[in-house]
Design goal:
mainly alpha, hpI Integrase, Chain A, three-stranded antiparallel β-sheet, 3 strands
């Protein structure tokens, strides 16, 4: 059995027997495709029936090295477990390779935030003379300018990009739309990328409207964004555990530190609850200390 056949059967099982929503099914399939992407990148021609515990452990180590958040890792492992549970139920395999697989211990640690100087270091690490340099610069600028989730970035469409008025229309969770401002620097580098590089690509059918494309003219994958950021972070000499979500978190933190209204930040991030925004837009202890020392009446002379 090849991967396509196994995934098709799993998809039918999730829809017919578990009655899951299309969004939930898509999330499960996406987790399996991450495993396939790992195998392809490492040139491992292994069928779903021949995957063993060692392969899966190395896959988890790989996504961890990319900076994938622990909660996301736990969700991916859960999806893969469900896939192999299905194969066991259908008597397609005799042994479950996920049986001993352990997920990360999820704590409540606040993720790392980049300060403005570190963001500039990452931007300066991009080689603009390289083939994909301007695309990667536009990607980082957009992540930080708009606070997008990685899925929102790769799904960003030309038809939802309005540089003349400085806004992008974002399709967030549960297909909820929101309008987010985009700054001049991001617009500048997106323009350079579109007008001088993207227009030279042989764009594949059904990918014409996506802003960011790979060399083959297809929409970028989530894993590729992780790769780009991991490489740039290393080049910049930054030791923090950085992922695409770090730019979203930094975007929100810097806005709040600068005095932005929390409700406005909530709207830009697309959070349904203000409580979620409060978690994402924590203020670091250094900033809090400076604020208290500056404004507390007992510290004023």
């Amino acid at each position: 059995m090849d991967w396509n056949s196994a995934i098709n059967g799993f998809e039918a099982y999730l829809m017919l027997e578990r009655s899951l929503s299309p969004n939930s099914i898509e999330a499960y399939i996406r987790d399996i495709k991450k495993l396939i992407e790992y195998l392809n990148i490492n040139k491992l021609e292994i069928s779903p029936l021949d995957i063993n515990f060692t392969h899966l452990q190395e896959f988890i180590n790989w996504i961890n090295s990319l900076g994938v958040a622990q909660r996301s890792q736990a969700r991916i492992i859960s999806g893969i477990r469900a896939f192999y549970k299905y194969l066991m139920m259908e008597d397609i395999i005799d042994n479950d390779p996920t049986e001993l697989l352990e997920g990360p211990k999820i704590g409540r640690k606040i993720p790392d935030v980049l300060n403005y100087e570190e963001i500039e270091m990452i931007l300066n690490a991009i080689d603009l003379s390289s083939e994909l340099g301007h695309r990667n610069r536009a990607i980082i600028e957009t992540l930080y300018a708009c606070g997008l989730r990685v899925s929102e970035l790769i799904d960003l469409k030309l038809s939802n990009y309005f540089p003349d008025i400085g806004f992008v229309k974002v399709i967030g969770k549960n297909n909820k739309e929101r309008i987010v401002p985009i700054n001049d620097e991001a617009i500048k580098y997106i323009g350079i990328y579109i007008n001088n590089y993207r227009n030279r690509i042989n764009i594949k059918k059904d990918n014409e409207d996506f802003v960011f494309l790979n060399r083959r003219g297809k929409k970028l994958s989530r894993i590729m964004i992780y790769h780009i950021i991991k490489e740039l972070t290393e080049l910049a000499g930054i030791k923090k555990n950085i992922s695409p979500h770090t730019f979203r978190h930094s975007f929100a933190t810097h806005l709040v530190e600068g005095g932005a209204d929390l409700r406005a930040v909530q709207e830009m991030l697309g959070h349904e609850s203000i409580l979620t925004t409060e978690i994402y837009t924590h203020l670091d202890t250094t900033y809090l200390k400076k604020t208290i020392l500056a404004f507390h009446p007992r510290n004023k002379k």
